[in-house]
Design goal:
Belongs to the YciI family. By secondary structure, the protein is α+β, with helices and mostly antiparallel strands. It has 6 helices and 4 strands; from the N terminus they run H-H-E-H-E-E-H-H-E-H. Helix content is about 40%, strand content about 25%.
Length: about 150
């Protein structure tokens, strides 16, 4: 019995040790707001065709310029970490954003700064999303691979 108990304790200790990440960087994890799994909550936004069908092409161009400028501003502020268009689909989904904010209310406030959304040319659905806290780190490399800006 003593031998079995010792084996069980030794097995638990070795399992516990095997589950630890030897390359863990506490300072980096803390700076990114990571939990013990290296994850954190974000707000995932699905942009879709809005209820305002604007026929004036110059107005549409102006709104999309403002949309792109707003994306750049939110990226610089560290609030927006992923943005991009979706391919054609039957749901009228146009693109996605991933905001590095904790609540849907914070995401809603950020969305109102986008002229394409405030004009109802685009509308947004917001979902809490649990993903890698390291996600913002890809932005450091994007400028090194981007030949042209949209």
């Amino acid at each position: 019995m003593k031998h079995l108990l010792f084996s069980l304790i030794a097995g638990c200790i070795s399992f516990s040790a095997a589950a630890q990440n030897t390359s863990y960087n506490k300072a980096l994890a803390d700076s990114l707001g990571a939990d013990q799994y290296g994850m954190k909550m974000y707000q995932l936004v699905i942009l879709k065709t809005g209820s305002n069908n604007i026929e004036d092409k110059e107005k549409v161009t102006e709104l999309f310029r403002g949309h792109m400028a707003n994306i750049g501003k939110l990226v610089k502020e560290g609030k927006l970490i992923v943005a991009g268009p979706l391919g054609k689909n039957d749901k009228q989904y146009r693109g996605i954003f991933i905001f590095s904010v904790k609540t849907t209310e914070e995401a809603e406030a950020l969305l109102q700064s986008d002229p394409a959304i405030s004009s109802k040319m685009l509308e947004a659905e917001i979902y809490p999303w649990y993903g890698s806290a390291a996600l913002p780190k890809y932005l450091e490399f994007h400028s090194q691979i981007e030949q042209a800006k949209p």
